[in-house]
Amino acid sequence: MGGIRTSGDLVAWMQLTRKMKIEQAKEYVAKKLNLNVRDLTNEAIMSTIRSEKGIGSVIPDHVEYMGIAAKSKIAKLLDVPIHSVNLYEKHLKG
Length: 94
Prior knowledge:
single chain, mainly alpha, globular
């Protein structure tokens, strides 16, 4: 699926956290992104979507969309727990 160039990381999150089969995971991610499943592998489309939603990219346009900020947005978008995000938010709350 191309990892962060397309949607492979998002699909993988669904497979790991929700135990979805690959086709089910692709459908879930496509629905969350308001795309067709075939668009998930299109680098041009996914570059735009990743930038608009702030969920990270190979060459980020905005510094705030990197690292933990991007992971946090992914967790909210896909409604999945990401351990590092949870730890970071807990740390911020003190």
